[in-house]
Amino acid sequence: MLEQLYNALFVGSVYALFALGFALVFSVLDILNLAHPTTFMLGAFAAYFAMTAVGLPWYVAGVLAFFVCGAFGIALDRIAFAPLRRRSAPGLSAMISSLAVTLIVVRLIELRYGGDFITFPAGAVPSLVLRIGDAVLEGIRLGIVVLSIVLMLGLTYVVRRTQLGRDLRALAENPRAARILGVDVDRAISATFFVSSALGGLAGVLLAFAYNTLDSRMGLPLELRAFTVMVVGGMGSLPGAVIGAYILGLGEVASLVYLPTELRDAFAFGLLFLVLIVRPTGLLGHRAADRV
Amino acid sequence: MLDVEGLRVTYGAVEAVHGISFSVAKGEVVALIGANGAGKTSTLAALSGLIRPSGGSIRLDGRELVGAPPHRIVAAGVVQVPEGREILARMSVEENLLLGSRGRGGVAALEPVWERFPILRERHALPAGTLSGGEQQMLAIGRALLARGRVLLLDEPSLGLAPKMVATIFDVLADLRRQGTTMLIVEQNALRALRLADRAHVMDLGRLTLSGSGEALLRDQGVVKAYLGG
Questions:
Q1: Phi, psi dihedral angles at B196 (to 5 degrees)
Q2: Where do the structural domains in chain A lie, given as residue ranges?
Protein backbone atom coordinates (compact mmCIF):
# COMPACT_ATOMS: atom_id res chain seq x y z
CA MET A 1 0.00 0.00 0.00
CA LEU A 2 2.79 2.46 0.91
CA GLU A 3 4.55 1.48 -2.30
CA GLN A 4 1.46 2.24 -4.37
CA LEU A 5 0.98 5.58 -2.71
CA TYR A 6 4.62 6.40 -3.28
CA ASN A 7 4.31 5.53 -6.96
CA ALA A 8 1.13 7.56 -7.30
CA LEU A 9 2.93 10.55 -5.85
CA PHE A 10 5.80 10.04 -8.27
CA VAL A 11 3.60 9.60 -11.35
CA GLY A 12 1.46 12.56 -10.29
CA SER A 13 4.54 14.76 -9.92
CA VAL A 14 5.76 14.00 -13.43
CA TYR A 15 2.25 14.61 -14.82
CA ALA A 16 2.06 17.87 -12.88
CA LEU A 17 5.37 19.20 -14.23
CA PHE A 18 4.31 18.28 -17.73
CA ALA A 19 0.76 19.59 -17.48
CA LEU A 20 1.82 22.85 -15.81
CA GLY A 21 3.72 23.87 -18.93
CA PHE A 22 0.80 22.89 -21.11
CA ALA A 23 -1.65 24.84 -18.95
CA LEU A 24 0.65 27.87 -18.72
CA VAL A 25 0.76 28.32 -22.49
CA PHE A 26 -2.96 27.70 -22.74
CA SER A 27 -3.84 30.24 -20.07
CA VAL A 28 -1.59 32.99 -21.41
CA LEU A 29 -2.10 32.49 -25.15
CA ASP A 30 -5.25 30.39 -25.50
CA ILE A 31 -3.47 27.84 -27.67
CA LEU A 32 -2.87 24.14 -27.22
CA ASN A 33 0.81 23.49 -27.81
CA LEU A 34 0.77 20.02 -29.33
CA ALA A 35 4.57 20.07 -29.48
CA HIS A 36 4.71 19.90 -25.67
CA PRO A 37 5.00 16.07 -25.63
CA THR A 38 7.88 16.46 -28.08
CA THR A 39 9.65 18.84 -25.73
CA PHE A 40 9.18 16.20 -23.03
CA MET A 41 10.88 13.61 -25.24
CA LEU A 42 13.54 16.10 -26.32
CA GLY A 43 14.45 16.72 -22.69
CA ALA A 44 15.15 13.02 -22.14
CA PHE A 45 17.27 12.85 -25.31
CA ALA A 46 19.15 16.05 -24.50
CA ALA A 47 20.12 14.53 -21.14
CA TYR A 48 21.00 11.23 -22.80
CA PHE A 49 23.18 12.99 -25.36
CA ALA A 50 24.92 15.03 -22.67
CA MET A 51 25.66 11.88 -20.68
CA THR A 52 26.69 9.51 -23.47
CA ALA A 53 28.27 11.77 -26.11
CA VAL A 54 29.70 14.45 -23.81
CA GLY A 55 30.15 12.31 -20.69
CA LEU A 56 28.51 14.71 -18.24
CA PRO A 57 27.16 13.39 -14.92
CA TRP A 58 23.39 12.84 -14.70
CA TYR A 59 22.60 15.91 -12.61
CA VAL A 60 24.53 18.28 -14.93
CA ALA A 61 22.82 16.65 -17.91
CA GLY A 62 19.44 17.20 -16.25
CA VAL A 63 20.09 20.90 -15.65
CA LEU A 64 21.42 21.26 -19.18
CA ALA A 65 18.31 19.57 -20.63
CA PHE A 66 16.15 21.99 -18.63
CA PHE A 67 17.78 24.99 -20.34
CA VAL A 68 17.98 23.35 -23.76
CA CYS A 69 14.25 22.67 -23.65
CA GLY A 70 13.54 26.21 -22.47
CA ALA A 71 15.47 27.56 -25.46
CA PHE A 72 13.67 25.07 -27.70
CA GLY A 73 10.38 26.48 -26.39
CA ILE A 74 11.34 30.02 -27.39
CA ALA A 75 12.40 28.82 -30.84
CA LEU A 76 9.18 26.83 -31.15
CA ASP A 77 7.17 29.97 -30.46
CA ARG A 78 9.12 32.06 -32.96
CA ILE A 79 8.78 29.42 -35.68
CA ALA A 80 5.41 27.79 -35.11
CA PHE A 81 3.28 30.35 -33.24
CA ALA A 82 4.53 33.93 -33.62
CA PRO A 83 3.90 34.17 -37.39
CA LEU A 84 0.32 32.93 -36.86
CA ARG A 85 -0.21 35.36 -34.01
CA ARG A 86 0.83 38.28 -36.20
CA ARG A 87 -1.84 37.25 -38.67
CA SER A 88 -4.41 36.67 -35.93
CA ALA A 89 -4.88 33.12 -37.20
CA PRO A 90 -7.45 30.95 -35.37
CA GLY A 91 -6.30 28.67 -32.54
CA LEU A 92 -6.67 25.61 -34.74
CA SER A 93 -3.79 26.79 -36.97
CA ALA A 94 -1.51 26.89 -33.95
CA MET A 95 -2.43 23.30 -33.10
CA ILE A 96 -1.64 22.17 -36.62
CA SER A 97 1.65 24.02 -36.83
CA SER A 98 2.78 22.66 -33.46
CA LEU A 99 1.81 19.18 -34.64
CA ALA A 100 4.06 19.71 -37.67
CA VAL A 101 6.96 20.61 -35.37
CA THR A 102 6.29 17.39 -33.47
CA LEU A 103 6.49 15.26 -36.62
CA ILE A 104 9.72 16.91 -37.72
CA VAL A 105 11.48 16.69 -34.36
CA VAL A 106 10.40 13.09 -33.74
CA ARG A 107 11.74 12.09 -37.17
CA LEU A 108 15.03 13.91 -36.55
CA ILE A 109 15.49 12.11 -33.24
CA GLU A 110 14.71 8.79 -34.93
CA LEU A 111 17.32 9.50 -37.63
CA ARG A 112 19.96 9.75 -34.92
CA TYR A 113 18.73 7.26 -32.32
CA GLY A 114 16.19 5.05 -34.12
CA GLY A 115 12.67 4.42 -32.95
CA ASP A 116 13.38 1.75 -30.33
CA PHE A 117 13.69 2.04 -26.59
CA ILE A 118 17.17 2.91 -25.40
CA THR A 119 18.56 2.82 -21.90
CA PHE A 120 21.17 4.84 -20.09
CA PRO A 121 24.63 3.24 -19.71
CA ALA A 122 24.84 1.02 -16.62
CA GLY A 123 25.46 3.06 -13.50
CA ALA A 124 24.92 6.41 -15.26
CA VAL A 125 21.76 7.05 -13.26
CA PRO A 126 22.19 6.40 -9.54
CA SER A 127 19.96 3.77 -8.00
CA LEU A 128 19.17 3.92 -4.36
CA VAL A 129 16.63 1.70 -2.72
CA LEU A 130 14.86 2.60 0.50
CA ARG A 131 13.20 -0.08 2.59
CA ILE A 132 10.44 0.88 4.97
CA GLY A 133 8.99 -2.24 6.55
CA ASP A 134 8.52 -4.63 3.65
CA ALA A 135 7.97 -1.80 1.12
CA VAL A 136 10.72 -1.22 -1.43
CA LEU A 137 10.98 2.40 -2.51
CA GLU A 138 13.29 3.70 -5.19
CA GLY A 139 15.21 6.72 -3.93
CA ILE A 140 15.28 8.52 -7.27
CA ARG A 141 11.50 8.74 -7.26
CA LEU A 142 11.54 10.48 -3.92
CA GLY A 143 14.07 12.95 -5.35
CA ILE A 144 11.77 13.55 -8.31
CA VAL A 145 8.77 14.16 -6.08
CA VAL A 146 10.70 16.64 -3.94
CA LEU A 147 12.20 18.43 -6.95
CA SER A 148 8.78 18.67 -8.63
CA ILE A 149 7.20 20.16 -5.55
CA VAL A 150 10.03 22.68 -5.22
CA LEU A 151 9.60 23.69 -8.88
CA MET A 152 5.84 23.99 -8.51
CA LEU A 153 6.26 26.24 -5.49
CA GLY A 154 8.83 28.26 -7.43
CA LEU A 155 6.45 28.65 -10.36
CA THR A 156 3.63 29.63 -8.01
CA TYR A 157 5.88 32.28 -6.48
CA VAL A 158 6.83 33.67 -9.90
CA VAL A 159 3.22 33.76 -11.13
CA ARG A 160 1.69 35.19 -7.93
CA ARG A 161 4.38 37.51 -6.64
CA THR A 162 6.68 38.83 -9.34
CA GLN A 163 6.29 41.48 -12.02
CA LEU A 164 6.74 38.82 -14.72
CA GLY A 165 3.92 36.82 -13.13
CA ARG A 166 1.62 39.85 -13.01
CA ASP A 167 2.47 40.55 -16.65
CA LEU A 168 1.58 36.97 -17.60
CA ARG A 169 -1.70 37.03 -15.71
CA ALA A 170 -2.59 40.40 -17.24
CA LEU A 171 -1.81 39.04 -20.68
CA ALA A 172 -3.92 35.94 -19.98
CA GLU A 173 -6.88 37.96 -18.77
CA ASN A 174 -6.90 40.88 -21.18
CA PRO A 175 -4.18 41.21 -23.86
CA ARG A 176 -5.32 44.69 -24.86
CA ALA A 177 -5.15 46.00 -21.31
CA ALA A 178 -1.73 44.39 -20.89
CA ARG A 179 -0.45 46.25 -23.95
CA ILE A 180 -1.89 49.56 -22.80
CA LEU A 181 -0.23 49.09 -19.42
CA GLY A 182 3.15 48.71 -21.00
CA VAL A 183 3.65 44.94 -20.75
CA ASP A 184 6.38 43.88 -23.18
CA VAL A 185 4.23 41.24 -24.79
CA ASP A 186 6.94 39.53 -26.86
CA ARG A 187 9.17 39.17 -23.85
CA ALA A 188 6.32 37.86 -21.72
CA ILE A 189 5.43 35.27 -24.36
CA SER A 190 9.05 34.15 -24.67
CA ALA A 191 9.22 33.77 -20.90
CA THR A 192 6.02 31.71 -20.98
CA PHE A 193 7.45 29.34 -23.56
CA PHE A 194 10.80 29.11 -21.80
CA VAL A 195 9.24 28.15 -18.47
CA SER A 196 6.64 25.87 -20.03
CA SER A 197 9.13 23.95 -22.17
CA ALA A 198 11.87 23.80 -19.55
CA LEU A 199 9.42 22.18 -17.10
CA GLY A 200 8.03 19.86 -19.77
CA GLY A 201 11.53 18.81 -20.83
CA LEU A 202 12.62 18.26 -17.27
CA ALA A 203 9.59 16.04 -16.71
CA GLY A 204 10.87 13.92 -19.62
CA VAL A 205 14.36 13.73 -18.14
CA LEU A 206 12.99 12.69 -14.77
CA LEU A 207 10.71 10.02 -16.16
CA ALA A 208 13.55 8.64 -18.31
CA PHE A 209 15.83 8.54 -15.27
CA ALA A 210 13.18 6.83 -13.15
CA TYR A 211 12.37 4.12 -15.70
CA ASN A 212 15.89 4.07 -17.18
CA THR A 213 14.42 4.13 -20.66
CA LEU A 214 13.65 6.63 -23.38
CA ASP A 215 12.31 6.54 -26.93
CA SER A 216 11.18 8.95 -29.62
CA ARG A 217 7.49 8.46 -28.81
CA MET A 218 7.65 8.60 -25.04
CA GLY A 219 5.75 11.91 -25.05
CA LEU A 220 2.61 10.59 -26.70
CA PRO A 221 0.97 8.95 -23.65
CA LEU A 222 1.55 12.22 -21.80
CA GLU A 223 -0.56 14.14 -24.26
CA LEU A 224 -3.82 12.42 -23.37
CA ARG A 225 -2.92 12.70 -19.69
CA ALA A 226 -2.15 16.40 -19.93
CA PHE A 227 -5.53 16.99 -21.57
CA THR A 228 -7.20 15.00 -18.83
CA VAL A 229 -5.30 16.82 -16.12
CA MET A 230 -6.23 20.20 -17.57
CA VAL A 231 -9.90 19.32 -17.94
CA VAL A 232 -10.05 17.87 -14.43
CA GLY A 233 -8.29 20.86 -12.89
CA GLY A 234 -9.94 23.50 -15.06
CA MET A 235 -8.55 24.62 -18.42
CA GLY A 236 -5.66 26.99 -17.90
CA SER A 237 -5.69 26.89 -14.10
CA LEU A 238 -2.20 26.17 -12.77
CA PRO A 239 -3.21 24.97 -9.28
CA GLY A 240 -5.93 22.99 -11.04
CA ALA A 241 -3.32 21.29 -13.23
CA VAL A 242 -1.33 20.22 -10.17
CA ILE A 243 -4.40 18.88 -8.37
CA GLY A 244 -5.61 17.18 -11.53
CA ALA A 245 -2.19 15.56 -12.04
CA TYR A 246 -2.15 14.02 -8.57
CA ILE A 247 -5.75 12.83 -8.91
CA LEU A 248 -4.86 11.16 -12.21
CA GLY A 249 -1.64 9.69 -10.78
CA LEU A 250 -3.48 8.29 -7.80
CA GLY A 251 -6.31 6.98 -9.96
CA GLU A 252 -3.97 5.30 -12.42
CA VAL A 253 -1.96 3.55 -9.76
CA ALA A 254 -5.18 2.43 -8.09
CA SER A 255 -6.54 1.19 -11.41
CA LEU A 256 -3.34 -0.84 -11.93
CA VAL A 257 -3.96 -2.55 -8.61
CA TYR A 258 -7.62 -3.30 -9.18
CA LEU A 259 -7.95 -3.50 -12.99
CA PRO A 260 -6.00 -5.20 -15.81
CA THR A 261 -2.89 -3.28 -16.97
CA GLU A 262 -4.36 -2.70 -20.43
CA LEU A 263 -6.98 -0.42 -18.90
CA ARG A 264 -4.46 2.19 -17.73
CA ASP A 265 -5.15 4.49 -20.69
CA ALA A 266 -8.85 3.79 -20.36
CA PHE A 267 -8.74 5.22 -16.87
CA ALA A 268 -7.49 8.60 -18.12
CA PHE A 269 -10.16 8.60 -20.85
CA GLY A 270 -12.84 7.59 -18.37
CA LEU A 271 -11.88 10.38 -16.01
CA LEU A 272 -11.88 12.85 -18.90
CA PHE A 273 -15.41 11.82 -19.90
CA LEU A 274 -16.67 11.84 -16.36
CA VAL A 275 -15.41 15.35 -15.64
CA LEU A 276 -16.70 16.70 -18.94
CA ILE A 277 -20.15 15.39 -18.12
CA VAL A 278 -20.32 16.20 -14.42
CA ARG A 279 -18.28 19.39 -14.16
CA PRO A 280 -17.18 20.71 -17.57
CA THR A 281 -15.35 23.68 -16.06
CA GLY A 282 -13.12 21.37 -14.00
CA LEU A 283 -12.35 21.76 -10.32
CA LEU A 284 -10.86 25.25 -10.41
CA GLY A 285 -11.92 26.43 -13.86
CA HIS A 286 -13.54 29.73 -14.64
CA ARG A 287 -16.94 29.77 -16.19
CA ALA A 288 -16.83 29.97 -19.96
CA ALA A 289 -18.32 33.45 -19.77
CA ASP A 290 -15.28 34.67 -17.84
CA ARG A 291 -12.93 33.71 -20.60
CA VAL A 292 -14.67 35.73 -23.28
CA MET B 1 5.28 68.18 -26.21
CA LEU B 2 3.11 65.76 -28.21
CA ASP B 3 2.96 66.62 -31.90
CA VAL B 4 0.70 64.75 -34.29
CA GLU B 5 1.04 65.48 -37.98
CA GLY B 6 -0.97 64.16 -40.90
CA LEU B 7 -2.07 61.09 -38.92
CA ARG B 8 -3.93 58.52 -40.98
CA VAL B 9 -5.53 55.32 -39.71
CA THR B 10 -6.83 52.74 -42.15
CA TYR B 11 -8.79 49.55 -41.52
CA GLY B 12 -8.53 47.41 -44.62
CA ALA B 13 -9.79 49.60 -47.44
CA VAL B 14 -11.54 52.08 -45.15
CA GLU B 15 -9.72 55.13 -43.88
CA ALA B 16 -11.04 56.15 -40.45
CA VAL B 17 -8.71 59.07 -39.77
CA HIS B 18 -7.84 61.30 -42.74
CA GLY B 19 -4.55 62.94 -41.94
CA ILE B 20 -5.22 64.99 -38.82
CA SER B 21 -2.71 67.28 -37.12
CA PHE B 22 -2.74 68.68 -33.60
CA SER B 23 -0.44 69.16 -30.68
CA VAL B 24 -0.55 69.10 -26.91
CA ALA B 25 1.83 71.43 -25.07
CA LYS B 26 3.36 70.63 -21.71
CA GLY B 27 0.85 71.16 -18.91
CA GLU B 28 -1.97 71.65 -21.38
CA VAL B 29 -5.32 69.86 -21.51
CA VAL B 30 -6.61 69.26 -25.02
CA ALA B 31 -10.05 67.80 -25.69
CA LEU B 32 -11.12 65.87 -28.74
CA ILE B 33 -14.88 65.85 -29.06
CA GLY B 34 -17.15 64.41 -31.67
CA ALA B 35 -19.84 61.86 -32.38
CA ASN B 36 -19.41 58.09 -32.27
CA GLY B 37 -17.41 56.86 -35.24
CA ALA B 38 -15.63 60.18 -35.72
CA GLY B 39 -12.28 58.44 -35.35
CA LYS B 40 -11.41 59.62 -31.83
CA THR B 41 -10.71 56.18 -30.41
CA SER B 42 -8.74 55.19 -33.54
CA THR B 43 -6.59 58.27 -33.02
CA LEU B 44 -5.85 57.25 -29.44
CA ALA B 45 -5.14 53.67 -30.47
CA ALA B 46 -2.58 54.96 -32.96
CA LEU B 47 -1.00 57.21 -30.32
CA SER B 48 -0.61 54.21 -28.00
CA GLY B 49 0.84 52.02 -30.74
CA LEU B 50 -2.07 49.56 -30.60
CA ILE B 51 -2.62 50.06 -34.32
CA ARG B 52 -0.05 51.19 -36.80
CA PRO B 53 -1.01 54.42 -38.59
CA SER B 54 -1.03 54.26 -42.38
CA GLY B 55 0.57 57.68 -42.55
CA GLY B 56 1.77 60.67 -40.61
CA SER B 57 3.94 61.13 -37.58
CA ILE B 58 3.54 61.20 -33.81
CA ARG B 59 6.36 62.89 -31.92
CA LEU B 60 6.96 63.19 -28.21
CA ASP B 61 9.49 65.95 -27.56
CA GLY B 62 10.66 65.45 -31.11
CA ARG B 63 11.03 61.69 -30.82
CA GLU B 64 9.10 59.69 -33.39
CA LEU B 65 6.71 57.16 -31.84
CA VAL B 66 5.19 55.65 -34.99
CA GLY B 67 6.34 52.05 -35.29
CA ALA B 68 7.32 51.71 -31.64
CA PRO B 69 5.62 48.83 -29.77
CA PRO B 70 3.08 49.83 -27.09
CA HIS B 71 5.37 49.07 -24.14
CA ARG B 72 8.03 51.45 -25.49
CA ILE B 73 5.44 54.19 -25.95
CA VAL B 74 4.29 53.70 -22.35
CA ALA B 75 7.92 53.79 -21.20
CA ALA B 76 8.39 57.03 -23.16
CA GLY B 77 5.53 58.52 -21.15
CA VAL B 78 2.44 58.38 -23.34
CA VAL B 79 -0.04 56.47 -21.21
CA GLN B 80 -3.63 55.71 -22.02
CA VAL B 81 -6.59 55.41 -19.67
CA PRO B 82 -8.67 53.31 -22.02
CA GLU B 83 -12.36 53.44 -22.76
CA GLY B 84 -14.24 50.95 -20.62
CA ARG B 85 -11.28 51.23 -18.25
CA GLU B 86 -9.90 47.78 -19.13
CA ILE B 87 -9.08 46.93 -15.57
CA LEU B 88 -7.94 43.38 -14.84
CA ALA B 89 -11.03 42.14 -13.07
CA ARG B 90 -9.58 38.94 -11.60
CA MET B 91 -6.46 40.61 -10.25
CA SER B 92 -6.50 42.60 -7.02
CA VAL B 93 -6.69 46.39 -6.91
CA GLU B 94 -3.11 46.46 -5.65
CA GLU B 95 -1.91 44.19 -8.45
CA ASN B 96 -3.59 46.39 -11.04
CA LEU B 97 -1.66 49.35 -9.67
CA LEU B 98 1.59 47.37 -9.60
CA LEU B 99 1.05 46.66 -13.29
CA GLY B 100 0.89 50.41 -13.82
CA SER B 101 4.07 51.08 -11.86
CA ARG B 102 5.77 48.05 -13.49
CA GLY B 103 6.67 47.03 -9.93
CA ARG B 104 9.01 50.02 -9.48
CA GLY B 105 9.38 50.74 -5.78
CA GLY B 106 7.02 47.90 -4.77
CA VAL B 107 3.83 48.63 -2.82
CA ALA B 108 5.42 51.69 -1.17
CA ALA B 109 5.30 53.45 -4.54
CA LEU B 110 1.49 53.15 -4.56
CA GLU B 111 1.16 55.67 -1.70
CA PRO B 112 0.29 58.69 -3.93
CA VAL B 113 -2.63 56.74 -5.40
CA TRP B 114 -3.87 55.65 -1.95
CA GLU B 115 -3.77 59.30 -0.91
CA ARG B 116 -5.64 60.50 -3.97
CA PHE B 117 -8.20 57.67 -3.86
CA PRO B 118 -8.60 56.47 -0.24
CA ILE B 119 -11.40 54.12 -1.31
CA LEU B 120 -8.88 52.13 -3.35
CA ARG B 121 -6.66 51.67 -0.31
CA GLU B 122 -9.63 50.23 1.56
CA ARG B 123 -10.25 47.77 -1.24
CA HIS B 124 -6.64 47.05 -2.16
CA ALA B 125 -6.89 43.28 -1.68
CA LEU B 126 -10.20 42.78 -3.50
CA PRO B 127 -10.47 41.65 -7.10
CA ALA B 128 -10.74 44.81 -9.21
CA GLY B 129 -13.86 43.39 -10.86
CA THR B 130 -15.78 43.91 -7.61
CA LEU B 131 -15.28 47.70 -7.72
CA SER B 132 -18.04 50.04 -8.91
CA GLY B 133 -17.67 51.71 -12.29
CA GLY B 134 -16.44 54.95 -10.77
CA GLU B 135 -13.94 53.17 -8.55
CA GLN B 136 -12.68 51.26 -11.57
CA GLN B 137 -12.18 54.55 -13.37
CA MET B 138 -10.19 55.83 -10.38
CA LEU B 139 -8.13 52.65 -10.54
CA ALA B 140 -7.48 53.14 -14.26
CA ILE B 141 -6.40 56.75 -13.67
CA GLY B 142 -4.23 55.75 -10.70
CA ARG B 143 -2.61 53.04 -12.79
CA ALA B 144 -1.76 55.54 -15.53
CA LEU B 145 -0.33 58.03 -13.03
CA LEU B 146 1.94 55.30 -11.63
CA ALA B 147 3.17 54.58 -15.14
CA ARG B 148 4.89 57.96 -14.89
CA GLY B 149 2.83 59.20 -17.79
CA ARG B 150 4.01 62.53 -19.13
CA VAL B 151 0.97 62.73 -21.37
CA LEU B 152 -2.24 61.02 -20.27
CA LEU B 153 -4.63 59.94 -22.99
CA LEU B 154 -8.11 59.65 -21.51
CA ASP B 155 -10.65 57.80 -23.62
CA GLU B 156 -14.23 58.54 -22.53
CA PRO B 157 -13.50 58.74 -18.80
CA SER B 158 -17.15 59.39 -17.94
CA LEU B 159 -18.67 56.66 -20.10
CA GLY B 160 -21.19 54.51 -18.29
CA LEU B 161 -20.84 56.29 -14.95
CA ALA B 162 -23.63 57.61 -12.73
CA PRO B 163 -23.95 61.44 -12.91
CA LYS B 164 -22.55 61.92 -9.42
CA MET B 165 -19.53 59.79 -10.28
CA VAL B 166 -19.02 61.70 -13.53
CA ALA B 167 -18.70 64.86 -11.44
CA THR B 168 -16.23 63.14 -9.12
CA ILE B 169 -14.07 61.94 -11.99
CA PHE B 170 -14.02 65.38 -13.59
CA ASP B 171 -13.04 66.85 -10.22
CA VAL B 172 -10.10 64.44 -10.22
CA LEU B 173 -9.15 65.51 -13.74
CA ALA B 174 -9.43 69.20 -12.81
CA ASP B 175 -7.17 68.47 -9.87
CA LEU B 176 -4.63 66.79 -12.13
CA ARG B 177 -4.79 69.78 -14.47
CA ARG B 178 -4.01 72.18 -11.62
CA GLN B 179 -0.99 70.05 -10.80
CA GLY B 180 0.25 70.52 -14.35
CA THR B 181 -0.59 67.11 -15.82
CA THR B 182 -0.58 67.10 -19.62
CA MET B 183 -3.74 65.44 -20.93
CA LEU B 184 -5.49 64.61 -24.14
CA ILE B 185 -9.09 63.81 -23.41
CA VAL B 186 -11.58 62.19 -25.74
CA GLU B 187 -15.10 62.59 -24.48
CA GLN B 188 -18.74 62.36 -25.49
CA ASN B 189 -19.68 64.53 -22.53
CA ALA B 190 -18.58 67.56 -24.55
CA LEU B 191 -19.75 70.16 -22.06
CA ARG B 192 -17.57 68.89 -19.25
CA ALA B 193 -14.64 68.19 -21.55
CA LEU B 194 -14.74 71.73 -23.00
CA ARG B 195 -14.92 73.28 -19.54
CA LEU B 196 -11.87 71.31 -18.49
CA ALA B 197 -9.80 71.84 -21.64
CA ASP B 198 -7.43 74.64 -22.54
CA ARG B 199 -7.96 73.87 -26.19
CA ALA B 200 -10.29 71.58 -28.06
CA HIS B 201 -10.84 70.09 -31.48
CA VAL B 202 -14.07 68.86 -32.96
CA MET B 203 -13.62 65.65 -34.89
CA ASP B 204 -16.09 64.57 -37.55
CA LEU B 205 -15.76 61.63 -39.94
CA GLY B 206 -12.01 61.39 -39.48
CA ARG B 207 -11.22 65.09 -39.79
CA LEU B 208 -10.73 67.95 -37.36
CA THR B 209 -13.47 70.35 -38.39
CA LEU B 210 -13.15 73.01 -35.73
CA SER B 211 -10.46 74.04 -33.28
CA GLY B 212 -10.18 76.64 -30.58
CA SER B 213 -10.03 77.27 -26.86
CA GLY B 214 -12.47 75.29 -24.74
CA GLU B 215 -14.38 78.45 -23.95
CA ALA B 216 -14.61 79.55 -27.57
CA LEU B 217 -16.06 76.19 -28.60
CA LEU B 218 -18.55 76.37 -25.74
CA ARG B 219 -19.84 79.60 -27.28
CA ASP B 220 -19.83 78.27 -30.85
CA GLN B 221 -23.40 77.84 -32.10
CA GLY B 222 -22.52 74.89 -34.34
CA VAL B 223 -20.88 73.01 -31.50
CA VAL B 224 -23.71 73.81 -29.13
CA LYS B 225 -26.23 72.48 -31.63
CA ALA B 226 -24.33 69.34 -32.57
CA TYR B 227 -22.75 68.21 -29.32
CA LEU B 228 -24.26 70.05 -26.40
CA GLY B 229 -27.88 69.38 -27.15
CA GLY B 230 -28.58 73.12 -27.55
A1: -80, -30
A2: 2-217
